[in-house]
Automatic annotation (TrEMBL):
This protein's record includes keyword Nuclease: no
Full protein name: ABC transporter permease
Organism, scientific name: Hymenobacter gummosus
Keywords, comma-separated and alphabetical: Membrane, Transmembrane, Transmembrane helix
Lineage: Bacteria, Pseudomonadati, Bacteroidota, Cytophagia, Cytophagales
Transmembrane segments: 21-41, 47-64, 85-105, 150-166, 171-188, 212-232, 239-261, 273-301
């Protein structure tokens, strides 16, 4: 297990080195800002300690199911699940460090105990793809795949039911919309094969417009019931419009980040996590709006530049 953990540490260090020093510093800055806001939240609302452990479990479970080395580990080391248990327990211990300064020992304990449960989940690739008619057009292939792999419709129905049951509280539909945005973001965390990229676009701008356009269309359609509940709440039309604009901005940046670092899987996921963290920081402090605008422009320019390195028909 020691050798395995050292190998994982070296792999992550190499991925951070490939990001470049200024991108790594930017992600660390965004992470530090998110950490500061988290500490403020925990200090003001002790009940938040019970929300964070399930979120950590979901994050670890999602990353575990997308790992590409599980089959290799299974073939080379029958005891590989013990390695995964150790790795995920360490991640949970790092996450628990945010709760210990406030004396939230129970919440910290859950943060350590829950992540190792993800070690028994099968990889997403092991799901059997059934032939069935989809409500989503084939051009939006991220949604077709994401809704199938992530049980997207079930999550959407669960969020809609929860928001409807608590519709008298403005935070319910707003929180459900933010949660649905995080689900949709996960649809874009895997780069498509290069042949699909080469045959599907006439130019980088054409490809990016299509990807952002389909993302915006289907997110708006699926978010419409949640937005309707938000309109009927005290937030009204203005609150619904602002939240939709924020969601589409974050989703656009996630799509652009995917092609800025295409086809490097781990690096683009780091970048997308940074984009989502920056979007959440804006909700806490408007001082980050200027940074978000700068990052948006940078991603737009860099994604087109990255795609220009490939030939298009």
């Amino acid at each position: 297990m020691k050798n395995y953990l050292l190998l994982r540490l070296r792999t992550q260090a190499r991925q951070w080195a490939e990001l470049g020093w200024w991108r790594a510093l930017l992600l660390l800055f965004i992470g530090a800002g998110a950490g500061a806001q988290l500490l403020r939240l925990l200090a003001a609302h002790p009940a938040a300690q019970w929300v964070l452990p399930p979120l950590v479990l979901l994050a670890v479970a999602g990353a575990h199911r997308q790992r590409t080395d599980l089959q290799f580990l299974q073939l080379t080391a029958p005891q590989y699940r013990r390695w995964l248990l150790g790795e995920y327990a360490l991640l949970g211990l790092l996450a628990a460090a945010w709760l210990l300064p406030f004396g939230y020992w129970s919440g910290a304990g859950l943060r350590v105990l829950l992540p190792p449960l993800a070690a028994w989940l099968p990889p997403a690739a092991e799901r059997i793809a059934r032939q069935h008619r989809s409500l989503v057009r084939a051009e939006a292939f991220e949604w077709v795949s994401g809704l199938r792999r992530r049980l997207g419709w079930l999550l959407w129905l669960a969020l809609l039911a929860g928001a409807a049951a608590l519709r008298q509280h403005t935070a319910a539909p707003a929180g459900a919309l933010a949660a649905w945005l995080l689900v949709v973001v996960s649809f874009y965390d895997t780069p498509e094969p290069l042949p699909m990229l080469l045959t599907g676009a006439r130019s980088p701008a054409h490809w990016l417009r299509a990807r952002v356009g389909w993302a915006a269309v289907y997110f708006t359609l699926t978010a419409a019931p949640l937005l309707a509940l938000l309109v009927l709440s005290p937030a009204g039309w203005a609150g619904a419009a602002l939240l939709l604009g924020w969601s589409l901005t974050v989703l656009t940046m996630v799509v652009l980040a995917k092609y800025t670092f295409y086809p490097h899987l781990t690096i683009l996921r780091y970048a997308q996590a940074g984009v989502v963290a920056l979007g959440l920081l804006i909700l806490a402090d408007s001082v980050y709006v200027a940074l978000l605008a700068a990052v948006l422009v940078g991603l737009l320019w860099r994604s087109r530049y990255r795609l220009k390195t490939y030939r298009y028909d």
